[in-house]
Design brief:
The structure is a homodimer. Chain A is built from ten helices and no strands. By secondary structure, chain A is mostly helical. The longest helix of chain A has 23 residues. The first copy, chain A, is elongated, with a radius of gyration of 19 Å. The interface between A and B is large, with 53 and 52 residues. The structure holds a DNA duplex.
Chain lengths: 201, 201
DNA sequence: AGCTCATGTCAACGAACATTGACATGGCGA
DNA sequence: TCGCCATGTCAATGTTCGTTGACATGAGCT
């Protein structure tokens, strides 16, 4: 995004003619840009410039914008991040991450921002149904386990996305007691969903 | 959206020269289109066609696309819908609405879809901070009441948006036991947030 | 009726975009 | 060293968009 440093870097380190490296660079830039701006607001030219390549190469290596988007989306969900969470501390840690600034867990945030952007763009939303099932809802369901894992995973995923949007909208950081209450409440939601025993009302 | 019926209707009921009516028609069409497609994917020409007006009138009456969007956004949140909910049945009714097809509560869904689209578009997101505070978070906070209403309203609003996104992504309807569990879990979340006494973990 | 100004229509502009095919060029095998 | 093909570059095309100013027209007033 008008990053002069990137241009300098590109000119300083001209890639040797290497199709694979170029393809990878384009894909990496695509992941970033699509996650940041969404499908509609991302220009192939920007991706190409960020990757230090030409727009025409995008067409050559990926076929077109939509194909590039799909590949970037799939690549972003290659390794899911749930397996390595400690179940005991998960709810509280996740809630803390959601309460504080977006820079705490950049990589994870990035991936799910990508998902969110993809889900809320009318152009790409129809493409997501299957992918969501396989790479998002599925892993969550398996990780949750227990009875009615499917439905709980739905609520889990929905809440998660909602908190991401909230953090996206909210500019300033939460502080003091408001932050504590926010974390406690969010943690309670996740904790409840991790159990297959419905809490008493 | 290529709706021949709209064209026919327009030609059949040509508005008499009435600036106010034309302005209102454009604004109504804008509310629909912006909510449906988001800021970036909505073309002024489509809005004008839907309203049976000319593109130039958009400029004359509103000044430009961004101004029209802001006015449409504010107009969509003129009357908030929380006051008239029955508090006793709120959580379950809201959860049911979120579980079932988008057509159950068209108007309310519509308004919040507008908000969601506005929040997730990089073009319009920066404009939202104040509006969100005043017309969305504020009413929820007041409606919730009790201790730490601010923080609870944040979690409430975030969850709500998340469930809207989930419904947007999910194509098919929820059925049978999955639907029941979904509703119960979502209702539990809302119910917990309506109380200022944190549930025991 | 005639004038007039609010209201509506139209065509065009310039920018941004994805896509495409023609062209240049560097690296590698013969 | 020479030639070829993968790789990279460039310019052009067609489309869509927001915006703009010039022009037409109808309703209401004198």
């Amino acid at each position: 995004m008008n990053d002069p440093a990137a241009l300098v870097r590109v000119r300083a380190n001209p890639r040797k003619r290497d199709a694979e490296a170029t393809r990878a660079a384009i894909l990496a830039a695509a992941k970033t840009q699509f996650a940041l701006l969404g499908y509609d607001c991302t220009a192939l030219r920007d991706i190409a410039r960020e990757a230090g390549a030409d727009v025409a190469l995008v067409k050559r290596y990926f076929g077109g914008k939509e194909a590039l988007f799909l590949e970037a989306l799939k690549a972003s969900f290659g390794s899911d991040g749930l397996h390595d969470w400690d179940r005991a501390s998960f709810a509280h840690e996740m809630a803390t991450m959601l309460a504080d600034s977006p820079h705490v867990d950049e990589a994870r945030t990035h991936r799910f921002q990508f998902l969110l952007r993809a889900a809320t763009s009318p152009t790409t939303a129809p493409l997501l149904n299957l992918l969501i099932q396989d790479r998002f809802l599925g892993p969550i369901r398996d990780w949750l386990g227990g009875a009615d894992a499917e439905a709980r995973a739905r609520v889990f995923a929905a809440s998660y996305i909602g908190f991401l949007v909230e953090r996206l909208i909210r500019g300033e950081a939460l502080l003091g007691r408001e932050r504590d209450v926010f974390i406690d409440r969010v943690a309670a939601i996740f904790a409840a969903l991790m159990s297959d025993r419905e809490a008493a009302t």
